[in-house]
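Async update (no meeting this week)

Hi team, since we skipped the sync, here's where things stand on the single-chain job. The sequence we agreed to prioritize is pasted below, unchanged from the tracker. I ran it this morning and attached the output directly underneath so nobody has to dig for it. Comments welcome in thread, and please keep replies under the output.
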Amino acid sequence: MDEIPDHLDHGLQIVFIGFNPSIRSGEVGRHYANPRNNFWRILHQSGLTPRLYDASEDGDLLKLGYGFTNIVARPTRGIDDITREEYQEGRELLRSKLEKYRPQVACFVGKGVYTEFSRRTKANWGFQGDVPPKVDGVREFVAPSSSGLVRMPMEEIVGIYRRLAEFTQENDG
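Output:
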């Protein structure tokens, strides 16, 4: 199955970073395409997007200043199918992408994504102001996973993403 292309550019406000694409995302070539994934609803309900987008429109979010990538590009059924070597290579590639494109914020969609990248054992929700970022000038934000398997109430998840929306509104333009 083919990797899903990144949506990256210079001057982005946020790059959303996932673990890796789902099988469904790999089949259709779009980020967060699994119908049980709440990503697009979370973005809209938190105020990050002005309307509810669909995975088929993932490239359109570049116009809003949002990009997409993953720590591992290969689609799998779950994170248990990702090897240690893939994570190691993914950390290096992700750091290179962040250094090249320098978004204002690297938003890790899930604590596990952040801990894999940062090699830290713990993280709080939101901005990681207690440690220096891995890439100078790129603020790190940890958000809950948007997977339908997450047990956290949707209202709480949306509230954490809302902090990111407030940041983008304060720093727009």
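Quick observations from my side:
The CA atoms of residues 44 and 52 lie 5 Å apart.
The chain is about 35% helix and 15% strand.
Reply here if anything looks off.
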